[in-house]
Amino acid sequence: MSRVVTTYHQRVAEEKRALIVTAATALFLELGYDRTSLARIAERSGVSRATLFKQFPSKAALFDAIVTESWSAADEDDPPQAGNVVDGLGIIGRRYAELLGRARMSDLFRIVIAELPRFPELAHAQFSQGKMPYFESVRSYLLAEHEAGTVRIEDVDLAATQFLGMISNYVFWPTLLVPGWEVSAERVAQVVDEAVRTTAARYAADGPGASAND
């Protein structure tokens, strides 16, 4: 019986946490980070102040949760195994495009950009807790392919940046700048496929990325 009760309480706590994060995101967008109080977030989410403070003792902690939720797809699936760079990058590229297509990701970037002059720590949290861990997972995959001999990459950081940039520059950044910008699923698939082909060709083991001594 105690296990059932514990599971129930955990589920309720997770549901309330999701309500709080959703309400906080909406209020940060509507009112700005500075003008949004924890009390207002509690009211919007329909939970008591005690419940909110128990989960999030500060707005900074709550914003960290928004970052974690926004980048959560990075932890949902195992990274592809090295051995076939086209297949591996295809998996990573599709996951990245899906992640960028989430409304919560756009919301996160809008909050950070709007509050950057007054609250640079928000950008730091977004970069160090969200973007960088995800980037490191892609970097680690490319390094594994390099070590497996399927590609030759002298600058893995640059290669990861190039690959992710080819996708985000088309399917994500315009959504923050151009009202009504939409990219069809077919077009997203094409963008990812071209990014994979370009990266695989550039860093092919016997291509221009190979060392002259190889």
From TrEMBL:
SUPFAM superfamilies registered for this protein in UniProt: Homeodomain-like (SSF46689), Tetracyclin repressor-like, C-terminal domain (SSF48498)
DNA-binding annotation, residue ranges on this chain: 37-56
InterPro entries linked: Homeodomain-like_sf, HTH-type_TetR-like_transc_reg, HTH_TetR, Tet_transcr_reg_TetR-rel_C_sf, TetR_C_Proteobacteria
Highest taxon of source: Bacteria
UniProt feature coiled coil, ranges: none
Keywords of the record: DNA-binding
Residues annotated as domain HTH tetR-type: 14-74
Matching PROSITE patterns: HTH_TETR_2
PANTHER family in UniProt: HTH-TYPE TRANSCRIPTIONAL DUAL REGULATOR CECR (PTHR30055:SF146), HTH-TYPE TRANSCRIPTIONAL REGULATOR RUTR (PTHR30055)
Protein name stated in the entry: TetR/AcrR family transcriptional regulator
Originating organism: Amycolatopsis ultiminotia
